Amino acid sequence: MSIMDQSMYIQVILPLRLSWVPFYKAAPQVCVGDKVKVMFNGRSYIGTVWKINQELPASLNDKKVLPILSVETSLARVSQREITLWEQIAAYYLCSIGEVCKTA
User: Fold this and answer.
1) What SS3 class is residue 4?
2) In whole angstroms, what is the distance from residue 3 CA to residue 42 CA?
3) What is the pTM of this model?
């Protein structure tokens, strides 16, 4: 069984103003709060793992979901409490969680 057979789907908060949080493929060792390097719209970004999902939503095609490029172990992990705070701030100020991430 190869590493891609063992991959799971994650949602990554990018420091961008998006109304949705993109999905990526990752190895099972990735945890919520990890900093990961990903490609989005032809550019590489470092984002924060927001949610780990076992299945891809029916609205997305597996072939369009890109794998993460790397896990950035030199950067500090974001705690679940911080992510919850980002969600609350985004809801309160009616902005995206990516904008809160960028500001934080």
Assistant:
1) coil
2) 24
3) 0.87
